[in-house]
Amino acid sequence: MLRLSVLQADEPVERAIDLAEVAQVGDTTMGVTIDGKSQFLCGEYVAGDKETGVTLSLLESGRWTERRFPPEAIEFVNFPMSPMPANYHELMKPREFYDLVAFLREQQGKKEQGKK
Fold it and tell me: Residue 44 in contact with residue 28, Cβ under 8 Å?
């Protein structure tokens, strides 16, 4: 519980805020419209994309619950920064890493040629 003093009609009033009720947990943020009301969600990405629908694991009442949102309900989605696992450098052999870098540089060259 967080206790704050706020001004109300120029008088200090103490407010208690339950952080469990207002805190957001997850790697993905999303705006959705459900029953005509816009909602902001934060959860762990499970699957999908904006065109086919997104499944998030949401922390609701202290429990993780998977919920799927159809594309027509999705206003925006901010996916995790990278689809690569955090320890990919430990999972790849040096040759695989060099091949990946070569492939990415080749793609960059194709983009630059397309701009000319």
Answer: yes
